[in-house]
Design goal:
With 161 residues, this protein is mainly alpha-helical. The chain is 79% helix and 0% strand. The protein has helices at residues 3-26, 29-46, 50-63, 67-83, 87-100, 108-111, 116-127, 129-138, 142-155. α5 packs across α7 (116-127).
Amino acid sequence: MTGHTFSIVLLAAVLTGCAQIKGQFQSVSPLSKGRSALNEGIRQYNDGQHAAAAKSLQSALDLGLSDLQRGEAYKHLAFIHCSNGRTGPCREDFRKAIPADPELTLAPAEAGHPVWGPIFSAAKAEANPFGTGLKQFDDGDYDASAKSLNLALERGLQPKD
C-alpha cells in the first residue's frame, strides 16, 4: 500500500469510527432535548409567557430530565398553576417536584409568596411527616406535631425511627 492509499484508508476508518461514536451520543440526546425544553420553559416563565412556559416545561418532562431537572420543571409548573388560581394542580406539581428533588427549596422571595409559599411548605411537610412532626414538637406546636407523627405512623416508619 502506498503512503497515499494508507492515508485514505486510515481517514475512512477514523470517519467510520466517528460516525459510530456520534450514533452512540445521539442515543443520549433526549435528555439534552429535555434540558433544552426546560431552559426554554424557564426563560418563558421569567418573561411572563406562562402558557408557552407550561407547554415547554411539560415537553421537557416528556422528553426526559434528570431528577433535579424534573424537580425544577414541576416547581415552575406549580408556580404557573398557583398564579392562575389553580391551587389543586399547584399542590400536585409540588408533590411531584419534592420526590424528584428531596432537597428542593424555594428562594426567599418564592417562599414568601402568599399563594404558593404555604402550599409548598405543606407539600414539603407531607413528604416527610416524621421529620416535620419532630420539628413541630421541638417548636412547641404539639397539636400539629401529633398530626404529623400520626401520619408518619400511618405511612409506616423506618426501623430506626
